[in-house]
Amino acid sequence: MSRKKALKGAKGASKSPKASPCKDGVGKSGKCAVAASGGAVHPSAPSISTSGGFYDVAFKVMLVGDSGVGKTCLLVRFKDGAFLAGSFISTVGIDFRNKVLNIDTIKVKLQIWDTAGQERFRSVTHAYYRDAHALLLLYDVTNKGSFDNIRVVLLANWVTPYHPVSSHDGARSPSRGRLGLC
Ligand SMILES: Nc1nc2c(ncn2[C@@H]2O[C@H](COP(=O)(O)OP(=O)(O)OP(=O)(O)O)[C@@H](O)[C@H]2O)c(=O)[nH]1
Q1: DSSP secondary structure, 37-85, as one string
Q2: Where would one find coiled-coil regions in this protein (predicted)?
Q3: Which residue, 56, 113, 127, 170, is the most exposed by fewest CB within 10 angstroms?
């Protein structure tokens, strides 16, 4: 099985843009923690994700950037601490992984969406931006074109860079890919 196929199979890849990240935020009570408030949630009692981890707040984070800038590698590195060396297999469509962090006394669940960088998937991946709390914009430090294309993403989705039009105050951050992961 290919590297990326294995990754997707492991964590419930979503093929449809209508698939909601809150699916994984459904607690034992059946509530959808993320969708219920339209943003980060601060439930009075900790919620439980289907992956088994309790959390207090949840955020949806999107990894965006050209194909090959290292989005999948960054995600796997962050989630599992491993670097995916070897042959490059492009992401098809979109995929996500969850990670729960302990920050002070709060359990923060990050649902991190890995988008396909290839142009042909653009319309699919854009559909997921709307309710994201943060976009991580990645570029390859050895490829100026991949940096220039971040501007295109910003201008296409927001009126001016770092000024979101979306309903909640998401964060946008240019990040350097392919740097020091290996
Ligand atoms: N040297 C080096 N290579 C990297 C680094 N990050 C990723 N790569 C390589 O770059 C290639 C592409 O990495 P991916 O993470 O699959 O790229 P991607 O942005 O997910 O690409 P798409 O799925 O097509 O959008 C792979 O061959 C990686 O091994 C890095 O920090 N340093």
Answers
A1: HTS----SS-EE-TTS-EESEEEEEEEEESTTSSHHHHHHHHHHS----
A2: none
A3: 127
